[in-house]
Amino acid sequence: MKSVNVHEAKTTLSALLAQVEKTGERIFICRNGKPVADLVPHKRKDRITPHPVMGGINIKYDPTEPLTPDEWPETT
Asked: What is the CATH number of domain 1-42?
């Protein structure tokens, strides 16, 4: 992992972004030698893989099946 100081990060931000985009490597931005921020690649959500909690839910009926007449709520 690479680390740069704040001044270098400000002057070379475009190049640092290109490097993160190309390599996927995390870059630490430091002030006085101590890390204060991370420059990390953006991770896109996978829309195909279900959420771990939602993947465990089992529906025991067909949610697309129409309601029978006696299941409809009464209107007032």
From this structure: 3.40.1620.10
DSSP-based three-state secondary structure for 28: strand
> What is the spatial distance between Cα 45 and Cα 39, in angstroms, rounded to a whole number?
18
CA 36/CA 17 separation, integer angstroms? 17
* 43 vs 48: CA distance, rounded Å: 15
Reading across the β-sheet that carries 27-31, which strands appear in turn? Answer: 2-5, 27-31, 34-39
- 61 backbone dihedrals φ, ψ, rounded to 5°: -145, 170
Segment 42-68, tens digit of pLDDT: 988 777 887 888 878 888 888 898 988
- For tokens 């270098």, name the residue: 8
Interatomic CA distance for residues 29 and 2, integer angstroms: 9
